[in-house]
Design a protein that fits this description.
There is one protein chain. By secondary structure, the protein is of the alpha/beta class. It folds into two domains: about 20-275, TIM Barrel (Alpha-Beta Barrel), CATH 3.20.20; about 285-355, Type Iii Antifreeze Protein Isoform Hplc 12, CATH 3.90.1210.10. About 30% of the residues lie in helices and about 15% in strands. The chain contains eleven helices and 14 strands. The protein has helices at about 35-45, 65-70, 80-90, 95-105, 115-125, 140-150, 165-175, 200-210, 225-230, 260-275, 290-295; strands at about 5-10, 10-15, 20-25, 50-55, 110-115, 130-135, 155, 180-185, 210-215, 235-240, 295-300, 315-320, 335, 350-355. The radius of gyration is 30 Å and the shape is elongated. The two termini are about 50 Å apart.
Length: about 350
């Protein structure tokens, strides 16, 4: 199945023949601090990322009250229950407006993941023009249908979903004719090297005929190998969590990369884009000199007298490649020589009669 045409996402084409679209996933790594959020936006822009992404939750709609109010001692600076921790890292409307303005100021597009229907509506009222569906929402069909109904280009991660569930989710967007990009993702944090399974990228592209990328949560010892491997495997989008410090308190810092590593990753991705090229077979002008030196041409194996019919045994094949290429031997065999052709000579079409009359 041929690859799908590129999708315009935040005014940038994603897909066949396009440079890798790199998403800096801030997520919750701002820790509810507006100044950290702005710093991460600046680092993503400086590194050359194509977009910066945040996450939005309506905490009271995340889970039942008995779950939200369970004691949670993971991040005591944020709160003592799951609800308190989640509320601590959420931004309000005014703060989001400031965040979006800061992204615009630094020339990097902003988009966001809604984790529930109120959050999707909230982002829509802010004028957000693209969405991300998290892996654990692939089965959340009311959210998918609402987001798809908006018609904005959407990226959807595919972790922790069965193929049947993914088929159903993709069908919702296709029925709504909403542009969709998939991300191969493994929802294991951090992801062990034996689970990365980058061949899934081409499998998903073939199954759905959609642009497919990669969202990485790999173990730190692998450094950038899975993300770069995904690019070489054909991922048109890559998403990585970014942080100011991997040792900060919070949900995703430990599986994120710091600004220095982000810049290194971008440098290597852009090198990969250059090396991968455009996916077409091209005879480059830069190859012409070697072609003329080394390609085999048709050469006379013996002296061929004027008026003689050329036979296969009269021909051999040698360099340089400035004569007739070997595959054109049939253009000479059984033709009449109209000049004497010395042995060991590149044979030209003008040396033979082009008909046998």
């Amino acid at each position: 199945m041929p690859q799908s045409d590129p999708i315009i996402f935040l005014d940038q084409p994603i897909g066949r023949g396009q440079p890798t679209f790199v998403i800096a996933e801030v997520g919750l790594n701002h820790n509810g601090d507006l100044s950290i959020a702005k710093q991460l936006i600046e680092e993503a822009a400086d590194a050359g990322c194509n977009a910066v992404k945040f996450q939005k939750r309506d905490v009271n709609n995340l889970a039942v009250n008995s779950f939200l109010d369970l004691p949670d001692s993971r991040f005591p600076e944020f709160g003592q229950t799951y609800r308190e921790i989640r509320q601590f890292v959420e931004f309000d409307r005014a703060q989001y407006q400031e965040i979006i303005g800061h992204a615009n100021l630094h020339g990097i597009p902003f988009f966001c993941t809604p984790f529930d229907l109120p959050s999707a509506h909230f982002l829509q009222t802010l004028g957000v023009q693209a969405f991300k569906i998290a892996s654990h929402c692939v089965t959340f069909s009311p959210l998918l249908d609402h987001v798809a109904s908006l018609g904005h280009p959407t990226i959807m991660s595919t972790g922790m979903a069965s193929l049947d569930e993914l088929d159903r989710a993709v069908n919702i967007f296709q029925t709504r004719q909403c542009p969709l990009i998939l991300l191969h993702c493994v929802s294991s944090y951090p992801t062990d090297r034996g689970l990365v399974n980058l061949r899934t990228i081409n499998y998903l592209r073939s199954r759905y005929n959609l642009p497919v990328g990669y969202s990485g949560h790999e173990e730190s010892s692998l450094e950038h190998a899975p993300t770069l491997g995904a690019v070489y495997a054909g991922a048109c989008v890559v998403e990585r969590h970014v942080t100011l410090d991997t040792k900060m308190m919070g949900f995703d810092h430990a599986l994120s990369i710091c600004p220095h590593d982000l810049r290194n990753l971008l440098d290597n991705i852009r090198l990969a884009d250059q090396l991968l090229g455009i996916g077409e077979k091209i005879f480059y002008p830069e190859e012409q000199q070697k072609r003329e030196q080394q390609v085999f041409s048709i050469v006379s194996a013996t002296k061929i007298l004027k008026g003689n019919k050329i036979t296969k045994c009269m021909l051999t094949y040698k360099g340089p490649g400035t004569g007739l290429p070997a595959y054109r031997a049939d253009d000479l065999i059984n033709k009449i020589a109209i000049v004497d052709i010395p042995p060991d000579t590149l044979i030209e079409l003008k040396m033979v009669r082009q008909d046998n009359d």
